[in-house]
């Protein structure tokens, strides 16, 4: 089982935690990670883009000139795709980009993502993340103390409005609860900060 030191908000080591092999020490399956990230990004798409075909563009009901004798190419409508203000040929129409993954694939992807952060030394466990008031400066000081990089994901064990709102104004910092984590956010961050209580809850919920 991988061991990791636990630090306080000042970056000082205050203990050690033993992580679950199942969740944080799993084999990293890059193919499944790719599948999960692709599914996540596709599911963010609204699929509402739409273009007008020649039959949907207003006008063009009259043949612009007679079929023969003008020396010009035959034309049936001024709303054909080759005309200015004409319809679009084979353009996008509203559609669903939704991709579903089964539970086993999601589970493997999540464990691979968490394990990759541990393996790359990009995970930081803090004994308790809290602030007595709504103060962005407090969170900035914490991030600097633990050496957080530009993009940071902070995982909390429960809703804490003071911490969440104090982090909201910091560029590149995102907060989430232990049961809201997803593969894309984990892989997309440079530093993965987790409260000790959140680590225990993640293992409790996902290691079953």
Please characterize this protein's 3D structure.
It is built from seven helices and six strands. α4 (136-145) packs across α5 (161-168). It has a six-stranded mixed sheet. 34% of the residues lie in helices and 14% in strands. The chain has 208 residues and is of the alpha/beta class.
Structural class: alpha/beta
| Strands, total number | 6
Spatial strand arrangement across the major sheet? 2-1-3-6-4-5
Terminal residue distance: 16 Å
Average of per-residue pLDDT values:
93
Helix content: 25-40%
Give the overall shape. Answer: elongated
Largest beta sheet, briefly?
A: 6 strands, mixed
Task: Considering the chains and any ligands shown, give keywords for the structure.
6-stranded mixed sheet; elongated; 208 residues; alpha/beta
Secondary-structure map:
Blueprint: E1 3-7, E2 13-18, H1 21-24, H2 30-43, H3 103-119, E3 123-126, H4 136-145, E4 152-156, H5 161-168, E5 173-177, H6 183-188, E6 191-195, H7 196-206
Parallel strand pairs: 1-3, 3-6, 4-5, 4-6
Antiparallel strand pairs: 1-2
């Amino acid at each position: 089982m991988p061991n990791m030191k636990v630090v306080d908000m000042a970056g000082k080591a205050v203990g050690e935690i033993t992580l679950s092999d199942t969740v944080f020490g799993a084999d990293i399956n890059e193919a499944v990670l790719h599948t999960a990230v692709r599914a996540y990004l596709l599911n963010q798409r609204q699929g509402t883009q739409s273009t007008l075909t020649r039959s949907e563009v207003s006008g063009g009901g009259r043949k612009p000139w007679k079929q023969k004798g003008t020396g010009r190419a035959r034309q049936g409508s001024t709303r054909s795709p080759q005309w200015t203000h004409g319809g679009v040929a084979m353009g996008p129409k509203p559609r669903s980009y939704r991709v579903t993954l089964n539970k086993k694939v999601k589970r493997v992807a999540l464990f691979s993502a968490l394990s990759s952060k541990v393996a790359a030394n990009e995970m930081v466990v803090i004994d308790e993340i809290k602030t007595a008031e709504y103060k962005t400066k407090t969170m900035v000081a914490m991030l600097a103390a633990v050496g957080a990089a530009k993009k940071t994901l902070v995982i909390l064990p429960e809703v804490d409005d003071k911490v969440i709102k104090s982090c909201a104004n910091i560029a590149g910092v995102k907060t989430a609860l232990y049961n809201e984590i997803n593969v894309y956010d984990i892989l997309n961050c440079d530093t993965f900060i987790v409260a000790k209580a959140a680590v225990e809850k993640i293992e409790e919920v996902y290691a079953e």
